[in-house]
Amino acid sequence: MTPSRGYRLLLRLAPAPLREVHGREMEELFVERLVECRTPGAAARVWAAATLDLLRARLAGTRPLTLTIPVDERSSLMLASDLRYALRSLRRQAGASGLVVLMLALGIAANVAAFSLLNGLFLRPFPFPHPERLVYLNETAPRWNLDLVGINFPDFDRWRKDQKLFEAMTAFSMSSFNVADAHGAERVPGAQATYDFPRVLGVSPILGRSFTSEEDKPNGPPVVVISAGLWRERFAGDPHVIGRTLRVDGVARTIIGVMPAQASFPDRIRLWVPLAGDPNQPYLAYGGEGFGRLKPGVTAADAERDLMRTQQPIWDARDKEHVVSPIVKPLRDMFVRNYRRAASTVMIAVALLLLIACANVAAVMLARALARRREMGIRLALGSSRLRLIRQLLVENLLLAAAGGVIGLLLGQWALGALIEMMPDQVPPWAAFELDARVVLFAVGLVGVTAIVFGWAPALHASQGELRSAVHDATGGTTGAPRGRRTLAFLVAGEFALAAMLLVCGALLVKAFDRARHIDPGFRADHVLTATVPLSEGTRPKEEQWLAFWKEFEQRAAALPGVDAAGLITCAPLGGCHQGQFFRAEGALPRPDGKNPVVLTRAATPGYFAAMGIRLRAGRFLQPADLEPKAAPVVIVNDTFVRTFWGDGVDAVGRRVNLGGRDSDWITVVGVAEDVKHYGLEVPMRPAVYLPPPAMPQPMMTLALHTSVEPESIAPALHDTLRRMDPELPLVQVRTMDAAIGTSLALREAFSWLLAVFASLALVLAIGGAYGVASYLVTQRRREIGIRVALGARTSDILRTVIVRGLIVAAVGVAAGLAASLALARMLADADALVGVRARDPEILAFVAAVLVGTALLANGLPARRAAHTDPMGALRID
Q1: Which of 200, 265, 641, 657 could form an SS bridge with 687, CB 3.0 to 4.6 Å?
Q2: Which is it for the CA torsion 393, 399, 404, 409, positive or negative?
């Protein structure tokens, strides 16, 4: 005979009313206690105690009985029993349990994905020894309106000789090089670096050696250090690669070393050549940047003061106004500065989403707990302590949270991979987004926090209260204790408030992205293809050779079928490059701030303006005659140049500007072009000029083509044209201007739509929570509704009664959320995240309010409709 069957026979000793109402719960509790027994003696005591309790109940009538459980069995933790009971309880309500796990998984997945991004960008240490001692070096010139001006090598040489707080420092210039062999040419990312860069990073070559100080001098021997990746790809990992040659920019360089993978910091560098800086160079050439390794215990601020001290002789000699100063910053701070706004926005969003998920789950679990008040009351009556019941419910919550955490961790890692794949150009190459111990610990912590956050209210409400009233409420078809209903209302209102905050901020960011996408870039983006060609100075060392090549290349490109216009420029818009010069303007207005701004300076051929569709304000564009050797020097300036130097509304055509500082260096302005968004659609434009290429010869230029066909279809013919001219030259950065605009907005697009996705998830969770609570309340009030229907209540009355209460709760939450969202929107506006959008946008506020109230109506309306069709006779037969 099974224990269940034996106990059912034993139950015949109990009074009939007690057996009919609580027999099943008493049987389940008896079986649970019996399973917990570890010895035959303990099982016998449970049988004996149950028999005595039932006999006492028979003698006492229907008074609440107290099941006597042996002290050693009742007081033990019985964790295994709690787990088994929790699993049985959750299996009995598989649908509700699955819904809770799904809601938690969504909230945890969003947090895991966001934290993985945060971990890779801000927390994961750089792959070098003592990375906290690495700092970033550069120079700043506020009077030139430049936060980072680049390092002048004579300044760096002085720092390196006189500093006292650095173990080592290196200067480098990120670049790319033409690498050619019998299989063709490619553009390889690389760097010109001083000989001490391995010591600064704390890395050693896996083969050979790095540069020596003698090799890192002007006119030094042509040597190159390659990365492990390039070594494996081009030389198949040949251990005898040292001493072989590699053609770099047309120069045969001897390979002297192979660097490990971590040395390719920060931009997937594949080869290094000596910087070969001249400490005695007669002019100032600011460019590049530097790294430093501090001595133990030295801070970045200490190191900056040390470099200020070494800079004093330079200031005394040639910069008495201290225009240019060294800066030292922690290395990671410089690399993550452009990601802080997006990261903080996303983390706030996912935290709100997790709170919504927790509130949602807490509401569902509280409704479930209130529905179990009869079970809890009987268990209390049969001898269970309140602490035991709370522990039991918390174990159930922990199981749900653990299941949600595991699924959320896996789902979050998948979402992170998908997000990175969607915006590969916006992910910094130095960041590693791998599943590490920090991410796992974060997920475990989330599981614990969520178990507590959504578990405390159900556990307390289920275990507190007077026993007789608990049983009576549960069996009478009421909606439970008023305190429980108030807590449910608070949780649902909280969900709608948090959802309102996310929806408002998400809608504002999406609208700002749409506004940014429609900002006039100052050029024609459709049907424009750009491609960059870097000449190898080893094969074409003279400026005359550069100019001859560019002239022929432009002519051949313009003759390709489908090309309407072709032109060249040294620095294309949205390409991330900047070439600056200082200009004096004839008759310029005095600047109240005392700043002398650096002017964006580009060389362009006449065809460039037609290919890009740049608009002319006054005068004329460059003409072929301006490129002739004996042509008078001319320049095109932009609107910002005119406003900066001469003021608004001034006719600049015919005025002169000076580039070199000598009286013979005056150049006549022949045209004023509209501003072009060179640095980004949301970035204000600097003063800028266009010069004819002979006035500014460059070994690298970008070709712009306007086509009558799909621009991508021209790329193969362009490759063939360049290959016929010089097979060792690569064609790089081939893209349309539409793609360039998309890339410039990719980071904003990513975090704007990411927040919109989170807001949509919040809306779904809020709907689910409101629907679940409304369904619970309708179920609990079924007898009341049945009586009202039997007494003649109309369908509209039932609908109104059920819906109004839910709408009031949702409306309160929406109002609170809209008020709080204004503060968050103001924070976004202060961070320049809202371009052309007001923080208090009435359209968005009205839209969010309407959406949330409409969803609340839907979530409450479905259970209300079901309640309105309640069968009175069926409802009155309940219990």
Answers
A1: 641
A2: positive
Euclidean distance between CA atoms 541 and 688, whole angstroms: 28
Q: State how far the Cα of 719 lies from the Cα of 736, in Å rounded to an integer.
A: 15
Say how far apart CA 36 and CA 61 lie, in whole Å: 29
Q: What single string gives the DSSP state of each residue in 750-780?
A: HHHHHHHHHHHHHHHHHHHHHHHHHHHHHHH
Q: How many CB atoms lie within 10 A of CB 5?
A: 10
d(CA 217, CA 128): 27
How large is the average pLDDT for residues 504-526? 88
Separation of alpha carbons 559 and 717, rounded Å? 11
Distance of CA 872 to the CA centre of its chain: 55
Phi and psi torsions of 560, nearest 5° = -65, 145
Alpha helices in 134-270 (DSSP H): 153-162, 197-201, 228-235
Report the C-alpha gap between 691 and 636 in whole angstroms. 7
Closest CA to 598 of 282, 231, 148, 28: 148
User: Which residue stretches of 523-603 are H helix?
Assistant: 543-558
Reading the block at residue 213, the tokens are: 């100080």
Choice among 413-422, 556-565, 651-660 with the minimum mean pLDDT: 413-422
Indicate the burial class of 88 (C-beta count within 10 angstroms; 0-12, 13-18, 19 or more): exposed
Task: Name the pTM for this structure.
Answer: 0.72
The lowest-confidence range among 88-102, 411-425, 751-765 is: 88-102
* pLDDT above 70 (res 332): yes
Distance CA 289, CA 857 (A): 60
Largest CA distance in the chain: 124
Residue 430's contacts (CB-CB under 8 Å, 6 or more residues apart) are 126, 265, 266, 267, 335
155-158 long-range Cβ contacts below 8 angstroms, 24+ apart: 155/311, 155/314, 155/324, 155/326, 156/194, 156/277, 156/290, 157/277, 157/279, 158/279, 158/310, 158/311, 158/313, 158/314
Query: Residue 782's pLDDT band (boundaries 50, 70, 90)?
Result: low
Q: Which amino acid is at 81?
A: S
* Whether the Cβ atoms of residue 742 and residue 573 lie closer than 8 Å to each other: no
| Burial degree of 716 (CB within 10 A; 0-12, 13-18, 19+) | exposed
Dihedral sign for Cα 598, 604, 609, 611, please.
negative
Spell 482-494 as b/e; 16+ CB within 10 A means b.
eebbebbbbbbbb
> Does the pLDDT at position 476 exceed 60?
no
Which amino acid makes up residue 249? D
